[in-house]
């Protein structure tokens, strides 16, 4: 990466500042030494009020954090999206979030900034080639905003009826890593998505399969952030939020299952919030989805992500496996996701990425432990019972998306 820039843009005053790979951290406060860092001599800031810094990791690339530094957090406040940071608390800052700092007894006069995180490769936005027939409608930029096992997701723009809006372009290229067989299967994804219409399923805006074919381009609506990233920041999801997430995911699953489609890769990375409100989410990545009623689509391979694969698939022989890819597979995966989100723990392993054989042994030999929820409120007890049914070892008696939706609808009041 040639240049990484995160910036805080001040509201109503001149104090904008940037973090780069050279300048990875700044202190904000009223002490003289902070001025070098950037902000400001405002007297209502603590001498060392907060620190904003960049950190790199292999999964997310550059991330920006804010850390509360005031010695007296009762007197001084540091807030992210109006939520006050505790003493010494560190928070991962996301694009579009608002930072406010100042005195606790003068909340009317907080300094306010909007965080912008621009991962810029070079300074100019470079365009990548779009097939001639689609050039009027789509523009692709070179910056990539996501990576999958088979694809790169680029920033893009769609111009329709005179209006231009941001979208993304998923690019799959035939390579050593993506075999011809795999590529051909992935080409089914946009066709399948095109036939679906549900508010919690990603919409395809357009697609193009090259002539050879060796390249697949899928333009989709732009999402904000995936549930894995959200979970890593929140650590534990409370029952109310779980309810909100579950209702939407299960509604999308019910829709798919009624149509005879099984997603086969339900996991937090494949569920994304549409925007910074964290209210609406959508299922993405239908690369492994299939119509289980369609005999032509028979394949006898094990697919999915180890931690989310159910016992019947781990147990299945080569000839049985195709007939076992049915809706209960998605339900189990959603059960694992719920277990992780509500308890902060994996049912099988501490770490997310583990060897598939080790996970299989644990799933088959050890079974699921009881859901270790924190408190014993009535809604937690209900969630515990639901998770036990989502993680039923027998796919035939495992609860369906429709059944859980029924329970959740009846118990809405408990989660308000
Ligand atoms: N519509 C979108 N808007 C914003 N980011 C997206 C969008 N679609 C995908 N991404 C990002 O790109 C990542 C990879 O996308 P996707 O899962 O579709 O690719 P894939 O190659 O099928 O991945 P895998 O097979 O590893 O699950 C996602 O986890 C997400 O972070």
UniProtKB/TrEMBL annotation:
ATP binds at residue 170. SUPFAM superfamilies: Protein kinase-like (PK-like), SMAD/FHA domain. The keyword ATP-binding applies. Residues 139-415 form the Protein kinase domain. Gene3D superfamilies: 2.60.200.20, Phosphorylase Kinase, domain 1, Transferase(Phosphotransferase) domain 1. Pfam families: Pkinase. One of its GO terms (molecular function) is protein serine/threonine kinase activity. InterPro entries: Kinase-like_dom_sf, Prot_kinase_dom, Protein_kinase_ATP_BS, SMAD_FHA_dom_sf. GO terms for biological process: mitotic DNA damage checkpoint signaling. Keywords: ATP-binding, Nucleotide-binding. One of its GO terms (cellular component) is nucleus. This is 1195_t:CDS:1. It comes from Funneliformis caledonium.
């Amino acid at each position: 990466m040639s240049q990484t820039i995160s910036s805080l843009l001040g509201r109503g005053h001149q104090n904008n500042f940037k973090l780069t790979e050279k300048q990875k951290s700044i202190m904000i406060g009223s002490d003289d030494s902070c001025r070098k860092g950037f902000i400001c001599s405002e007297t209502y800031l603590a001498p060392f009020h907060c620190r904003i810094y960049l950190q790199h990791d292999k999964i997310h690339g550059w991330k920006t954090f804010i850390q509360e530094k005031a010695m007296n957090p009762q007197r001084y406040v540091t807030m992210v999206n109006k939520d006050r940071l505790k003493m010494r608390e560190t928070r991962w800052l996301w694009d579009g979030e608002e930072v406010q700092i100042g005195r606790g007894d003068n909340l009317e006069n907080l300094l306010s900034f909007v965080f912008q995180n621009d991962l810029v490769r070079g300074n100019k936005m470079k365009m990548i080639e779009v097939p001639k027939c689609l050039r009027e409608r789509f523009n692709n930029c070179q910056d990539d905003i996501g990576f999958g096992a088979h694809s790169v997701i680029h920033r893009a723009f769609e111009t329709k009826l005179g209006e231009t809006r941001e979208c993304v372009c998923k690019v799959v290229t035939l390579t050593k890593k993506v075999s011809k067989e795999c590529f051909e299967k992935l080409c089914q994804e946009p066709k399948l998505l095109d036939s679906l219409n549900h508010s919690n399923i990603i919409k395809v805006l357009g697609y193009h399969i090259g002539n050879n074919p060796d390249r697949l381009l899928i333009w989709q609506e732009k999402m904000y952030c995936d549930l894995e990233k959200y979970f890593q920041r929140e650590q534990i999801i409370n029952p109310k939020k779980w309810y909100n997430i579950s209702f939407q995911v299960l509604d999308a699953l019910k829709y798919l299952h009624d149509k005879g489609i099984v997603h086969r890769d339900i996991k937090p990375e494949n569920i994304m919030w549409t925007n910074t409100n964290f209210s609406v989410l959508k299922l993405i990545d239908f690369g492994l989805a299939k119509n289980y009623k369609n005999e032509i689509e028979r394949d006898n391979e094990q697919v999915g992500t180890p931690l989310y694969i159910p016992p019947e698939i781990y147990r299945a022989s080569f000839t049985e496996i195709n007939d076992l890819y049915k809706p209960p597979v998605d339900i189990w995966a959603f059960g694992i996701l719920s277990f992780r989100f509500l308890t902060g723990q994996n049912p099988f392993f501490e770490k997310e990425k583990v060897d598939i054989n080790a996970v299989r042994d644990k799933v088959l030999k050890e079974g699921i432990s009881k859901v270790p929820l924190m408190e014993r409120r009535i809604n937690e007890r209900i969630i515990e019972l639901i998770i036990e049914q989502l993680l039923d070892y027998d796919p035939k008696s495992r609860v369906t998306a429709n059944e859980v939706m029924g329970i959740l609808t009846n118990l809405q009041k408990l989660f308000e």
